[in-house]
Write a structure and sequence with these properties.
483 residues; disordered N terminus; single chain; 1 helix; 2 domains; mainly beta; Methylamine Dehydrogenase, Chain H; 5-stranded antiparallel β-sheet
Length: 483
């Protein structure tokens, strides 16, 4: 959901001047132009620069998480997805820059380190220049990706199988009837026969045209997919090896409707649509292959201008719990589906509320909410009284490790923790989450590393067959078994 600085730069390139700059040439993004006189740069001598770094660039108080990847071969290094142009990481210096050229215009993005509080942490200054003149400046913080100290590859969980996708980044999975349906963003959907979880077999794929598919769900013999350009897609999968498209909802009048999160509760389907109207669409799926729209709900207290929009959600006992991005967690009573009622919300500074899981633990209803951005953490929230939500516990791995998927089974919470892989938590006491198992899925040598902030384990499901099914952006479909 975060715009990368590369996208911002790409948009700027479209409007760069088309004639030469006749003024005196400037170099305000070159290393000598940065004022580092007040910095303590002694820690840079201990920094091992090569590897994947997750970073957060802050401009005017707004953070943009992204990544860079350094190798001894500069031609293979990347700064914000683009080839590195200049690197100086020797002694007490840490400087990186990348350049874009178009016609008579040039753009440079540069990072200059100011301090290294630890060998795997860097803080410093960010600048962007057009034709050598600075037009944006801010700060950055970066963390080197590596396995948590003292951990092995796994504990309490074994990998049963690993199946790389033919192409694309695996982002979500749903398992039904012995088949795993894997969403892969712009590459669409891949269907695997997992009757033998140790040997998944691809049986079908659906490739979209200029679209992004985010979430999948199967009810009976009907597959639902959220589309970035068409909303809700409906497929007949009575024969999973030959999926047949039925329709796109809510229809042709909403061709630019963005579908994101997806949840089915009984005979209702909830689709979270961040844009263009920041709404939740609720469908009747009593006839799964012929959904009908019941209502469109917008959280009245939210403000789209502040990036407050629904991303993901779950339903428990006619309460809809929404990861509502900058708004935080929103709670909505959907007993009367025609008239949903806002019951409360939990907000916090710099919120990027996304994935949610909810369950009854003891005599309380606990919502587990996770943020996606820099400083991501898992919060345990007592939502028994939705008008007075309180945080009762939290779990976090580090500022650069985002939570992208949650599945709650009883008091056990399965967490897709991005670069820190699968985390299994005992939440019988939500105030003190206890990690009872893990599997470190991140391997720096996998293709595609260092190109995105949201990289690593992206989803996890426990369908009740004794296995855990997960998606990993580089490794594809992973099947685990608890030991």
């Amino acid at each position: 959901m975060n715009r990368s600085l590369v996208v911002m730069a790409g948009a700027l390139l479209l409007t760069l001047p088309g004639c030469p700059n006749t003024e005196e040439e400037k170099h305000e993004c070159d290393l000598p132009a940065f004022n580092l006189s007040a910095c303590d740069r002694s820690g840079f001598a201990a920094v091992q620069a090569d590897g994947v770094w997750k970073t957060n660039v802050t401009i005017d108080g707004v953070g943009t998480p992204t990544a860079f990847f350094l190798t001894p071969d500069q031609s293979q290094s990347l700064l914000f997805v683009t080839p590195l142009s200049e690197r100086n990481v020797e002694g007490e210096t840490f400087y990186l820059a990348t350049d874009y050229e178009r016609s008579f215009s040039s753009l440079r993005i540069a990072l200059a380190g100011c301090e290294a509080p630890a060998p795997d942490r860097i803080k410093g200054q960010f600048r962007r220049c057009v034709n050598g003149e600075m037009d944006l400046e801010g700060t950055f913080e970066a963390a080197r990706v590596h396995r948590p100290a003292g951990e092995q590859e796994a504990s309490g969980v074994e990998l049963v199988s690993e199946t790389a996708l033919p192409r694309g980044r695996a982002m979500d999975v749903f398992v039904s009837g012995g088949y795993a349906y894997v969403a892969a963003l712009s590459e669409g959907l891949f269907i695997y026969d997992v009757k033998d979880p140790a040997a998944p077999r691809k049986v079908a794929e659906i490739t979209p045209t200029a679209d992004t598919w985010n979430r999948v769900w199967v009810k009976d013999q009907t597959l639902y997919v959220t589309s970035q350009t068409e909303g809700l897609l409906v497929y007949d999968v009575s024969n999973p090896e030959a999926p047949r498209r039925l329709m796109a909802l809510p229809g042709s009048t909403d061709t630019v409707l963005a579908g994101w999160g997806l949840f089915v509760d009984g005979e209702r389907l909830y689709m979270m649509s961040p844009s263009p109207r920041a709404e939740v669409l609720i469908f009747n799926v009593s006839k799964p292959s012929a959904p009908s729209l019941l209502t469109r709900y917008y959280v009245p207290e939210s403000d789209t201008l502040k990036q407050e929009y629904p991303v993901d959600g779950v339903v428990l006992n006619n309460r809809l719990y929404l990861g509502h991005w900058a708004y935080g967690l929103a709670v909505v009573d959907v007993t009367d589906v025609a008239k949903p009622v806002s019951k409360g919300h939990f907000g916090y500074d710099n919120a990027t509320s996304r994935t949610v899981a909810v369950g009854a633990i003891g005599d309380r209803t606990i919502a587990f909410e996770a943020s996606e951005g820099w400083g991501s953490r898992l919060r345990a929230l007592d939502v028994s009284d939705a008008a007075h939500i309180t945080e009762v516990g939290r779990f976090e791995m580090g500022p650069a490790s985002a939570v992208l998927g949650l599945t709650l089974v009883g008091t056990k919470l399965y967490v897709a923790h991005n670069q820190d892989g699968l985390r299994v938590l005992d939440m019988s006491n939500p105030s003190t989450p206890r990690q009872i198992a893990y599997y470190n899925t991140w391997r720096e040598t996998d293709s595609g590393r260092g190109r995105a902030f949201l990289d690593g384990l992206s989803g996890v499901k426990a369908p009740g067959d004794g296995y855990l099914y997960a998606t990993e952006t580089s490794r594809g479909l992973l099947v685990f078994r608890e030991q």
